[in-house]
Write a structure and sequence with these properties.
Mean pLDDT of chain A: 97
Distance between the termini of chain A: 81 Å
Keywords (chain B): FAD, Flavoprotein, Oxidoreductase
Number of helices of chain B: 12
Protein name (chain B): Carbon monoxide dehydrogenase
CATH topology of the largest domain in chain A: Aldehyde Oxidoreductase, domain 4
Structural class of chain B: alpha+beta
Number of domains of chain A: 3
Helix content of chain A: 25-40%
Strand content of chain B: 25-35%
Pfam family, one (chain B): FAD_binding_5
Domain FAD-binding PCMH-type (chain B): 1-177
Number of strands of chain B: 14
Mean pLDDT of chain B: 97
Number of helices of chain A: 19
Number of domains of chain B: 3
Helix content of chain B: 25-40%
CATH architecture of the largest domain in chain B: 2-Layer Sandwich
InterPro entries (chain B): CO_DH_flav_C (IPR005107), CO_DH_flav_C_dom_sf (IPR036683), Diverse_Substr_Oxidored (IPR051312), FAD-bd_PCMH (IPR016166), FAD-bd_PCMH-like_sf (IPR036318), FAD-bd_PCMH_sub1 (IPR016167), FAD-bd_PCMH_sub2 (IPR016169), Mopterin_DH_FAD-bd (IPR002346)
Largest sheet of chain A: 7 strands, mixed
Strand content of chain A: 25-35%
Distance between the termini of chain B: 50 Å
Oligomer: heterodimer
Shape of chain B: globular
Structural class of chain A: alpha+beta
Radius of gyration of chain A: 28 Å
CATH topology of the largest domain in chain B: Uridine Diphospho-n-acetylenolpyruvylglucosamine Reductase, domain 3
CATH class of the largest domain in chain B: Alpha Beta
Largest interface: A-B, 32 and 23 residues
CATH class of the largest domain in chain A: Alpha Beta
Number of strands of chain A: 35
Chain lengths: 806, 287
Amino acid sequence: MNDLTPTREQRTAALEGLGCKRKRVEDIRFTQGKGNYVDDVKLPGMLHGDFVRSPHAHARVKSINSEEALKVPGVLAVITAETLKTVNLAWMPTLAGDVQMVLADGKVLFQNQEVAFVVATDRYAADDGVNKVVVEYEPLQPLVDPFKSMAPDAPVLREDLAGKTTGAHGPRKHHNHIFEWTVGDKDLTDAAFRKAEVTIKEMISYHRTHPSPLETCQCVCSFDKIKGELTIWGTFQAPHVIRTVVSLIAKLPEQKIHVISPDIGGGFGNKVGAYPGYICAAVASIVTGKPVKWVEDRIENLTATSFARDYHMTTEIAATKDGKVTGLRVHVLADHGAFDACADPSKWPAGFFNIVTGSYDFPTAHLAVDGVYTNKAPGGVAYRCSFRVTEAAYCIERAMDILAQKLGMDPAELRLKNFIKPEQFPYHSALGWEYDSGDYHTAMRKMMETTGYAALRKEQAEKRAAFKRGETREVMGLGVSFFTEIVGAGPSKNCDILGIAMFDSCEIRMHPTGAGIARMGTKSQGQGHETTWAQIIATEIGIPADNIQVEEGNTDTAPYGLGTYGSRSTPVAGAAIAMAARKIKAKAQMIAAYKLEVHEDDLEWDIDGFRVKGLPEKFMSMKDICWAAYNSVPPGMEPGLEAVSYYDPPNMTYPFGAYLCVMDIDVDTGVYKVRRFYALDDCGTRINPMIIEGQVHGGLTEAFAIAMGQEIRYDDTGNVVTGSFMDFFMPTAVETPHWETDFTVTPSPHHPIGAKGVGESPNVGGVPAFSNAVNDAFAFLGATHIQMPHDYWRNWKAAKTLGAVA
Amino acid sequence: MIPGAFSYHRPASVADAVKLLSDLGEDARPLAGGHSLVPMMKLRLASPAHLVDLHGIAGLKGIGRDGNSLVIGAMTTQHDLLASDDVARSVPILHEAALLIADPQVRYRGTIGGNVANGDPGNDMPALMLTLGATYRLEGPNGAREVKAADFYQGAYFTALEPGEILTAVSIPVPAPGHGYAYEKLKRKVGDYATAAAAVVLTMASGKVASCAIGLTNVHETPLLATAAAQAVIGTSLDAAALKNAAAAAEAIMAPAADTRGPVEYRKHVGGIMVARALQRAASRAR
């Protein structure tokens, strides 16, 4: 060896593999304005579509007159439900087993529902046409409050379901009832409550909000009449699922459909489902023979495509006097809007809400969820969380604080007392999950030590005394949150979408010069897949990440996958990538053995190639093996070096974390200041710490927005009052707190590289931390539970209700 | 979010602009920074057939002096105000308030003329103009006239502007040397209108308030001059009772709408707090 021989450290570093803070390769184009988004797709002769939308929340459509609209220069067609009926597309199936109107068929069921689709030569003419379509409505009584959905005299919303006493998820109890979903042992749980020394009960609401990605939902549909082929560029988080759904509902052969998700400007769950815009653009292209573009504006995005949350959770905990939990009972009233268009795995009408036992060792629990219809937009998507997991985390984390308050215990101590212990993993929860791994006590104690938790509590006690003496008008809150997520949907034994198991996939092709291309069934919307996927491959096969091109989103070239949402990419596709890489490596080992003239068992892997055991100078690099794969493979072996893996995960993964929010609130104005926010995340093996930190920053910012003001609010007649960024709280850099991040590493035992997924943890864990901080700030004045969102005026209202403001 | 069709005009003089607006009548709207009008057009809440862009009129931009008054051309942007040493020195409350208007991108385009002439109760500058005793120069088919800011605002989006008239300049008497000032604005985020805001300009003598003017933003369909509130502090040392009286007097004339910023009760309550805080901060700056 001489000085020029790279050290092992240098060879490892050159790969930029697992654990490397590799800079995001996609940012080179994004930061120079060279991304290629759906709205950048411009085809010759392309037409533009725009919707006529309902001003009413609930009304009968008496007539639609398109005469004047068709006279507008440039307007070519006005599509209505009657048009769509001729191709049997007036209604479409939803992912949740319901059906949804594509265009208003007889009545409208929410404000801004799609009524007619105007197709024109440009975007301006389309909008001019929209303004000339005359729709005659007969307003009906709107149903806005989900608690009134199942009243005996509640208006009938879904006339199409008349007489149907069974829905996709079992019996329906009322004409506005969608499903009831129960989990757990009711008798055992009721018994635990009868025997309990202490109980708490609270109705904890998680308000309706919206994922609101920077780029709205949009598509370009282009039907080639000669070939009978439909190409769709769209903002799809799951392009293959869209292809299958289009094939099934449009009765087009699947090989004749090409779905392309180009660069996507954020999804957060908003871009999982299928929307009327996609169907109308496709039909319009088939009818006109020209490409048709549909692009949502911000108001349409906030008011018509999928909302999130709207869960109203009546929560009870049974416990002993010294703070050991003995039972959990939760009833959820779930407001699904006018159609059940939740984007959950098909058998899970309330997603994985049964993770609601959280990080705690509940001996028994029972959960019931009732889904109901209201005159609001459909949806219920997983806004930067796994399916209904953020609702569950908020529910249990708020309830634990309420219990701590009742017991007079510190909320952190109560949690430490009830955590699942490290030796209990794999842990079987009372509501049916098998937690893969965790070390909650270590994470919690690290949070408490790093933040100086005890000192903060002392300061709080002093400030409370000062407040009571009238020396300050500020109250201080400490928001503790310890969440356990369930992500990585999912194992085929319990997860499918419309019958397709929720595996994911990777195909790797190595080129002769030691470079390669890898394609997956996932689709990055900002997560940085092009960067991190290459890092997994780099470590697995010893080829520098820079030499691996990652490509996603084209259904013609990528292997079938279920897409990116629910923090499933790393747990599922990340595993497929490692497994495909291992197939490459296995073949490479045979080639290396042949070239080095030894038995393959005599070889050992060494960072970036194979070495003969005991003979360190006999080494063949992966780069050289790639070349050999194309000219000198062992006799009988096919040339080339490529592999495909479809990964059906044996279990979900269970990331967790310990968060602390320190907040000061001016009781006179309700203005809050987040003084400090600490987030410790354990996502198992860390692929790219820089990207993890970025993900945590983004998720915390969304959590901050949701907890502190972001809501989709309706007035009593069903009008959306927060339909633009003037009123829908979207924090800027000025409002966003500073984030401190930290971590522990507890690998997943069943994942090939031990990774668990992180993108959604901060949203899941962040919301309860903020809300607990507000509630903790007011607790000494007698508050037990203050509903979100905690915007200024509501904080003031809370202070006033508690007598702290005159 | 797509506006309807309109014709675009770019006159080179005030006379041409006035003529265009007079000839085209109610279908025409003058265009300054466009930060109120253009969003309304995109929502089709406004559909003017003609836009008369004032950016081509050279004389409408700039900050100068007329005796002891600061004269600001209507097309002067908020950014120009922030860049002006004279504004920072002689009417520093304008500088402070301009910094609280939206974000730098908006301030590069948004103009003082558009801000004060639109009659939007959410705009910040009108209440300042009332507080400072400003006068607006209006030019129309019948010549030019001066209207006091205090007489200009008649209702939400209703002003003293007659058809064909353009607000061409704002004239602000420079407050006394050593005056104290403050603009207290409660808003939910950058870019939001005020939940409530209060402007205060005062002078102190021997520890007591010698003169005081208070203006209020977004707590009524027009900007308000809180005369009784100002009266309540004159002669006081701004003790707790005086601040309480001023806040109460200000709240008494507020009539905000309930909106997503909060219910009426809250917006009035914090309006009173903004008055008290602005008074205290202004007094601390007075020499």
